[in-house]
Amino acid sequence: MIRRLVLDVLKPHKPSVVEVSEALSHLEGVEGVNIIINEIDQQVENAKVIIAGISIDFAQIQEKLEEFGATIHSIDEVAAGKRIVEEVKTPQDSSARM
Questions:
Q1: Cβ distance 37 to 17 under 8 Å?
Q2: What is the rounded CA–CA span in Å between residue 2 and residue 80?
Q3: 33-88 pLDDT tens trace
Q4: CB neighbourhood size of 96 (10 A)
Q5: What is the rounded distance in angstroms from the CA atom of residue 21 to the CA atom of residue 10?
Q6: pTM, whole model, 2 decimals?
Q7: Furthest-apart CA atoms within the chain: distance in Å
Q8: Burial of residue 65, with CB atoms counted within 10 A of its CB: 0-12 exposed, 13-18 middle, 19 or more buried
Q9: Which residues contact 10 (CB under 8 A, 6 or more apart)?
Q10: Which one is predicted more confidently, 89 or 48?
Q11: Which of 14, 19, 74, 95 has a 20 to 30 A CA-CA distance from 89?
């Protein structure tokens, strides 16, 4: 069972992030939605979509986003299982980004 999803999403300006977040939050298994706009272009917005819940159905999330004309560019994080395992920093993380 998926408990958290972090998605890179390209969406049109309308519907607004308020409408999209409300619609996603009403899906079964979803407890919270956070949408952060990273970049705005003339036609589209690039958004980081964070979804948390007890049992998130990825296919349902994807379908809802597509209904709004949005496209998932990448799945940046998935947390699944009985509890969420938080990311930890290691020495390799800083040297890999140089």
A1: yes
A2: 4
A3: 999 999 999 999 999 999 999 999 999 999 999 999 999 999 999 999 998 899 88
A4: 8
A5: 14
A6: 0.89
A7: 42
A8: buried
A9: 44, 45, 46, 47, 70, 71, 73
A10: 48
A11: 74
